[in-house]
Amino acid sequence: MKNDLKRLLMIFIYSLVAAIGMTAAVPHALAAPIEEETSILIDKSSHILVVYVNETPVYTFMVATGKGNLTPVGEFRIANKIKHPWYNRKSIPGGDKRNPLGTRWLGISIPNTGGYRYGIHGTNRPYSIGQSVSSGCIRMLNRDVEFIFKHIPVGTRVVIQD
């Protein structure tokens, strides 16, 4: 019950911040932890990605996830990072406004994929954020994934839960 209220509050805060045009990154408590471990939690049911530093939530972002069970659950790592990723299925170059991968790609170490099948990436469909619509990847607004890309190193732990 407490976690459900917390999620609803975060969704409300995110919506309010987005409605007035501020950045989508919503800082949590004014804690200033000493950085030892950065990790990411993706909650598929609430479409939220939370960045933790030393187990303290620091930033929350709304995301889109996969249809049905297409987004795998479990504990993984950031395997690679790519600026302006190419969309190989339709040979759309990185940086092209038609590119559904947006401006950044953070590959997730799902077994047997090399970090190139599932990832956290931007989108050219910002209206999809907050929904279960992808083929398994985690979509973010381009400005949000650019922030994550800048601050999250390869090797960061990523937990995806239902």
Descriptive labels:
LD-transpeptidase, cell wall biogenesis/degradation, two-stranded parallel sheet, 162 residues, alpha/beta, 17% helix, cell shape
Structure explained in plain terms:
The chain is an alpha/beta fold and 162 residues long. The chain has helices spanning 2-19, 142-151, and strands spanning 26-27, 38-43, 48-53, 56-62, 65-66, 74-83, 104-108, 119-121, 132-134, 138-139, 157-161. Strands 1-4-3-2-11-6-7-8-10 form a nine-stranded mixed beta sheet, sandwiched between helices. Strands 5-9 form a two-stranded parallel sheet. The longest helix has 18 residues, at 2-19. The chain is globular. The model has no long low-confidence stretch (mean pLDDT 86).
List the helices and strands and how they pair.
Layout lengths: L1 H18 L6 E2 L10 E6 L4 E6 L2 E7 L2 E2 L7 E10 L20 E5 L10 E3 L10 E3 L3 E2 L2 H10 L5 E5 L1
Parallel strand pairs: 2-11, 5-9, 8-10
Antiparallel strand pairs: 1-4, 2-3, 3-4, 6-7, 6-11, 7-8
> Helix-strand pattern, N to C?
HEEEEEEEEEEHE
Provide the structure class: alpha/beta
- The strands making up the biggest β-sheet line up spatially as 1-4-3-2-11-6-7-8-10
Morphology: globular
Report the strand count.
11
Distance from N terminus to C terminus (CA atoms, Å) equals 16 Å
The portion of residues forming beta strands comes to 25-35%
Instruction: Work out the radius of gyration.
Output: 15 Å
The residue ranges in which pLDDT falls below 50 over 5 or more consecutive positions are none
**Could you describe the largest sheet, including whether it forms a barrel?**
9 strands, mixed
Oligomer status: single chain
Q: What is the residue-mean pLDDT, rounded to a whole number?
A: 86
Counting H and I runs of at least 4 residues, what is the number of helices? 2
